[in-house]
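Annex B.
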Amino acid sequence: MSEMQRDPREDAIVLLARREYSVVELRERLARHEHEPETIEQVLNALQAEGLQSDSRFAEQFLRSRVNRLQGPRRIEAELRQRGIDQALIVTTLSESTVDWFALACQALRRRFDGPGNDRREQAKRLRFLASRGFDGEQGYHALEHAWTSSEEL
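Regulatory protein RecX: predicted structure tokens.
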């Protein structure tokens, strides 16, 4: 096969060998390689049927990688949505995870700050930091109160 006539299945497998991709990401990547849309859909359907591509597996792997980066559920949800993952699958993935979001918020706060802050302005800064990482208000206030106590170790 010449360079101009690359096989879309081979391109997809090369990509999937590096990391998991959502079906939307894989479709976009194959389209950039100038494969025909009908051929791309056939390849994607075959890869899913063979278990080589799975949005569920992608979502689980993505969740683990973002938890390792100390990111919260709201940010993870937004990023999964951006990558074309179905809302029902996002909800299932987040609800079935065993992540303690409160402890994770504490860990993120401890890593970034030495203490809860001496006044409301400093505490608001810490809450904004946690919100930017995808934690909700309840998780943020919990972290402010407990992040520097020895009982909140992960």
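The chain has a mean pLDDT of 93. The first helix runs from residue 8 to 18. Further annotation is deferred to the next reporting cycle.
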